[in-house]
């Protein structure tokens, strides 16, 4: 079959290498996404700066549970 040629040639080996690197890259990206999803599972992130500040004040004990809930409801309905 390849009696008169030297196999795939330079471009064939290059394409095989690039294909292998792309496959390993996809596996690594999938592992990274899975790791992030498992690591962040159950961790609630507060995106709004006002909610984050309110949560910090509650954590420090500056406001009680009722005050926290009331202000949080106010922030979310504005």
UniProtKB/TrEMBL annotation:
<dbReference type="Pfam" id="PF09851">
    <property type="entry name" value="SHOCT"/>
</dbReference>
<keyword id="KW-0812">Transmembrane</keyword>
<feature type="domain" description="SHOCT">
    <location>
        <begin position="51"/>
        <end position="75"/>
    </location>
</feature>
<keyword id="KW-0472">Membrane</keyword>
<feature type="transmembrane region" description="Helical">
    <location>
        <begin position="12"/>
        <end position="35"/>
    </location>
</feature>
<protein>
    <submittedName>
        <fullName>Putative membrane protein</fullName>
    </submittedName>
</protein>
<dbReference type="InterPro" id="IPR018649">
    <property type="entry name" value="SHOCT"/>
</dbReference>
<keyword id="KW-1133">Transmembrane helix</keyword>
